[in-house]
DNA sequence: GCAAGGTC
């Protein structure tokens, strides 16, 4: 029997599609990467009985990068990145082992059906999958078709079955357009980023960003924020005047009227209008009107709208909102949260999810009434053909979800209920008055039926005092007519929600990448998020954008993306050649790049105003080994030491503090050592600024300290202070921290493993002898007489930290504080699988403690 | 160390 392999874009879709096609009867198992599942079921394909095997990838299988040697910033001129530097495809996520996985599953299959998302990226992934899997599949005998593409516009029974019945072929041109996009983004982005970063980092000491990045999406995103900043800066308030009239409705009640001219900007004219009206005693009713109006129920929820509301109403940043939504999705509370679609498919079961909310403490009444009276048909939205709108999948309570997740869930659910509710109906009434020659109006709204605003109370029509009932020809007494002097006010900084709207409008990024771009400009310190989630550009952000405007405005205009996209679409439609478009566009940007490099002084002039040159920044710290003058420590990111005499800069490890290390010097280059440490309970080690930037030995990597230096006799080196192989990672060595007494510490020079030992010992030294059973270096410890843990009056003991029974009692292993989730930065991290059980068994390394290792490993989580 | 695009 033949086997048909089918591949979807993500695990969740593989499951839904398999469920539909197998009518619910399929077997399932995890794939070798632990992330993708494989669903199998029997069926018929092209009239033959076959075995179907449905699985998925996780987005792109491959990613584009330069060949390794072109990633050395010091050795490659960024201009080379436009053409000379070759690129290669690498596995996008090596941990997922996607190519291997596809090959294991694809081996021996006869046909393949590609169920990737029906957009250009999906088409591109089709070919990534084919590249991996075709070589291991069975060859077709008579040249019949073995590669099929399923095109579907929603994940519904009818659509999926229809797609299966009308299989086509993958579209190579669409895939090529993505290849071109990837190459352009990579070459252009990296060239500009490297040049800018090196240029400005080499000149200024307080830029406060370790990367001065450029990209066709992030730069226009920043541009929007700075554009608003410029509007605020150049805003000149203008004075204007408003005529305000008050009429008496009855004895106790008066009514404020709006002037039909709204406002005038000339004082004398305003005065003239006041003079013409202020002596009038009566206001005459000229007309009245009453109109029934409706406020429309919302469209079904898509990602971008959810992010906007999350930011503006819930105060949650887009990145955070997406993470929260993803968690709600994987826990089964909401449907797939990444979709552009605002239209429910015809077959969508609206009542099912609604019924689940019928007993919810917050909205049971509304839901029950809707179910009893019949739901309203949702508005017709946009169908992007990706996933149904975001809807709740099961009821949840605040206690169950807690905090942020609950607030987002609550919003999604209220929004969903609103989409099947009725429009809000209200009566808008207005009365027009004449006072002298001038006209005034008064309007009011009264709710007829609240409709969806009952479940979205923040949208409700505000309660107003009702208008007096009057008719044309009636007169009311004028209580007062006065002139108000006011000033126009500047706009405020751009809110995140407004920025998302602008990005969407100009096609900057996608629903999935918009949060990433916004996050980028925050992390690079180009903008800061202020109260109300408004984005205020920093000096750095402003200078960059103003600099681009000065040199080549196209670099920052939102049109840069759409212009390139237009070219790419020609490739996708088969109307232009991939090589030609790529070559031409790269050529245009190469010219722009050279012009930018030649004109960089224009941006530099702006930099000079806001930032200080390297030589004028930082505090003197340690001595240079070449000129023996003090170098200055520049704390701002990226922290480094600068010798203004030699005009050399030495980068330091980031995320830690640096101090002078007892004026000790490196025996190799005479530079004064510094001590790097990460917080009070973290680890610390000495570091030679020169060696760290120019490693003296082949096995020492750049950016490391003396704890990785293999100098055979220097008292600070790994050779002298190393004890034995780390118990938490493959390649690290536990090294004594000679500065840590009296709370002595031993730390891994690679991972976060840290051991506290021998508290109150007054001296700890690494001995030249090694342990007979595990080959670790012995430690020579002098204890304090009063607090010695040794039997009798002994104060001195030599032994193995892993094997010696006395020492074992005195060693407590744990990760360094910086490894704790509390101290970690944002971002996904898989916290499982460290330590015990991760090391391949039976692979002894040098100086490895034998079975004692596992006992020690049990100490840490 | 860099882009933007998928997704976990």
From TrEMBL:
Top-tier EC class: isomerase
GO molecular function: DNA binding; DNA topoisomerase type I (single strand cut, ATP-independent) activity
Region feature (Disordered): 821-853
GO biological process, one term: DNA repair
Residue stretches of biased makeup (Basic residues): 821-850
Annotated Topo IA-type catalytic domain residues: 171-593
Record's keyword terms, sorted: DNA-binding, Isomerase, Topoisomerase
Reaction equations catalysed: ATP-independent breakage of single-stranded DNA, followed by passage and rejoining
GO CC term, one of those recorded: nucleus
Keyword Coiled coil: no
Superkingdom field: Eukaryota
Matching InterPro entries: Topo_IA, Topo_IA_2, Topo_IA_AS, Topo_IA_cen, Topo_IA_cen_sub1, Topo_IA_cen_sub2, Topo_IA_cen_sub3, Topo_IA_core_domain
E.C. no: 5.6.2.1
Domain Toprim: residue ranges: 3-153
Keyword Isomerase: yes
Family matches, as Pfam families: Topoisom_bac, Toprim, Zn_ribbon_TOP3B
Matches recorded under CDD domains: TOP1Ac (cd00186), TOPRIM_TopoIA_TopoIII (cd03362)
Family that this chain belongs to: Belongs to the type IA topoisomerase family.
Function statement: Introduces a single-strand break via transesterification at a target site in duplex DNA. Releases the supercoiling and torsional tension of DNA introduced during the DNA replication and transcription by transiently cleaving and rejoining one strand of the DNA duplex. The scissile phosphodiester is attacked by the catalytic tyrosine of the enzyme, resulting in the formation of a DNA-(5'-phosphotyrosyl)-enzyme intermediate and the expulsion of a 3'-OH DNA strand. Releases the supercoiling and torsional tension of DNA introduced during the DNA replication and transcription by transiently cleaving and rejoining one strand of the DNA duplex. Introduces a single-strand break via transesterification at a target site in duplex DNA. The scissile phosphodiester is attacked by the catalytic tyrosine of the enzyme, resulting in the formation of a DNA-(5'-phosphotyrosyl)-enzyme intermediate and the expulsion of a 3'-OH DNA strand. The free DNA strand than undergoes passage around the unbroken strand thus removing DNA supercoils.
Protein name as it appears in the record: DNA topoisomerase
């Amino acid at each position: 029997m033949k086997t048909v392999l089918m591949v979807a874009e993500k695990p969740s879709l593989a499951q839904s599609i398999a469920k539909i096609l197998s009518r619910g009867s399929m077997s399932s198992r995890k794939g070798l990467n632990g992330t993708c599942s494989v669903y199998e079921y029997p069926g018929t394909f092209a009239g033959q009985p076959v075995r179907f095997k449905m699985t998925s990838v996780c987005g792109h299988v491959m990613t584009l990068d330069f060949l390794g040697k072109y990633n050395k910033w010091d050795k490659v001129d960024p201009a080379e990145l436009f053409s000379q530097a070759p690129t290669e495809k690498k596995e996008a996520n090596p941990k997922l082992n996607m190519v291997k996985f596809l090959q294991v599953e694809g081996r021996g299959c006869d046909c393949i059906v590609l169920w990737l998302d029906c957009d250009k990226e999906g088409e591109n992934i089709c070919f990534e999958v084919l590249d991996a899997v075709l070589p291991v599949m069975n060859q077709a005998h008579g040249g019949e078709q073995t590669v099929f593409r399923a095109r579907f516009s929603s994940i519904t029974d009818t659509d999926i079955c229809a797609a299966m019945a009308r299989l086509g072929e993958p579209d190579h041109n669409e895939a090529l357009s993505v290849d071109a996009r990837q190459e352009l983004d990579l070459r252009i982005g990296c060239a500009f980023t490297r040049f800018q970063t090196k240029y400005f980092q080499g000149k200024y000491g307080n830029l406060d960003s370790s990367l001065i990045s450029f990209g066709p999406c992030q730069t226009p995103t920043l541009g929007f924020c700075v554009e608003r900043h410029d509007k605020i800066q150049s805003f000149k308030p203008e004075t204007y005047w408003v005529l305000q009239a008050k009429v008496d409705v009855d004895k106790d009640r008066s009514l404020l009227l709006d002037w039909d001219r709204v406002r005038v900007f000339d004082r004398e004219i305003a005065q003239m209008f006041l003079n013409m009206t202020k002596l009038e005693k009566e206001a005459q009713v000229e007309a009245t009107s009453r109109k029934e109006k409706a406020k429309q129920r919302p469209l079904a929820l898509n990602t971008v709208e959810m992010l906007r509301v999350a930011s503006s109403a819930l105060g949650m940043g887009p990145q955070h909102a997406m993470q929260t939504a993803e968690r709600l999705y994987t826990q089964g509370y909401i449907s797939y949260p990444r979709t552009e679609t605002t239209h429910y498919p015809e077959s969508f079961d609206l009542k099912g999810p609604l019924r689940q909310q019928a007993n919810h403490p917050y909205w049971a009444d509304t839901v029950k009434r809707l179910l009893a009276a019949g739901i309203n048909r949702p508005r017709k939205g946009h169908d992007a053909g990706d996933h149904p709108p975001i809807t709740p999948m099961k009821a949840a309570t605040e206690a169950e979800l807690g905090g942020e997740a609950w607030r987002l869930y609550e919003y999604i659910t209220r929004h969903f209920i609103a989409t099947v509710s009725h429009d809000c109906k209200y009566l808008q009434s207005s009365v027009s008055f004449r006072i002298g020659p001038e006209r005034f109006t008064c309007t009011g709204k009264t709710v007829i039926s609240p409709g969806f605003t009952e479940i979205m109370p923040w949208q409700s029509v505000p309660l107003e005092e009702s208008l007096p009932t009057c008719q044309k020809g009636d007169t009311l007494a004028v209580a007062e007519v006065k002139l108000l002097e006011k000033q126009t006010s500047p706009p405020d900084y751009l809110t995140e929600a407004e920025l998302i709207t602008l990005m969407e409008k100009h096609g900057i990024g996608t629903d999935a990448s918009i949060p990433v771009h916004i996050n980028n400009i925050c992390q690079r310190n180009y903008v800061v998020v202020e109260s109300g989630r408004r984005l205020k550009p920093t000096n750095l952000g402003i200078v960059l954008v103003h600099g681009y405007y000065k040199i080549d405005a196209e670099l920052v205009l939102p049109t840069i993306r759409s212009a390139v996209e237009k070219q790419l679409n020609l490739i996708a439609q088969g109307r232009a050649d991939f090589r030609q478009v790529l070559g031409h566009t790269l050529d245009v940007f190469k010219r722009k790049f050279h012009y930018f490099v030649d004109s960089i002084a224009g941006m530099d002039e702006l930099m000079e105003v806001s930032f200080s040159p390297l030589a004028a920044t930082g505090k003197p710290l340690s001595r240079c080994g070449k000129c023996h003058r003090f170098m200055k420590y520049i704390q701002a990111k990226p922290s480094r030491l600068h010798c203004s005499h030699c005009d050399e800069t030495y980068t330091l490890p980031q995320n830690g503090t640096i101090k002078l290390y007892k004026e000790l010097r490196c025996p190799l280059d005479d530079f004064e050592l510094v001590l790097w440490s990460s917080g009070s309970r973290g680890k610390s080690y000495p570091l030679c600024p020169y060696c760290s930037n120019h490693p003296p030995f082949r096995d020492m990597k750049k950016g490391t300290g003396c704890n990785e230096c293999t100098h055979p006799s220097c008292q600070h080196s790994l050779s002298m202070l190393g004890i034995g192989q780390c118990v938490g990672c493959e390649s690290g060595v536990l090294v004594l921290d000679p500065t840590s007494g009296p709370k002595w510490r031993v730390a891994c020079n690679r991972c976060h493993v840290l051991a506290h030992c021998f508290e109150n010992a007054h001296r700890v030294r690494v001995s030249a002898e090694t342990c007979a059973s595990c080959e670790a270096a012995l430690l020579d410890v002098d204890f304090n007489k009063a607090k010695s843990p040794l039997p009798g009056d002994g104060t001195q003991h030599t032994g193995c930290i892993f094997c010696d029974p006395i020492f074992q009692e005195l060693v407590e292993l744990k990760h360094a504080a910086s490894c704790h989730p509390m101290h970690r930065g944002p971002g996904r991290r898989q916290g499982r699988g460290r330590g015990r059980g991760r090391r391949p068994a039976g692979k002894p390394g040098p100086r490895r403690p034998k079975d004692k290792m596992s006992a020690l490993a049990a100490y840490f989580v």
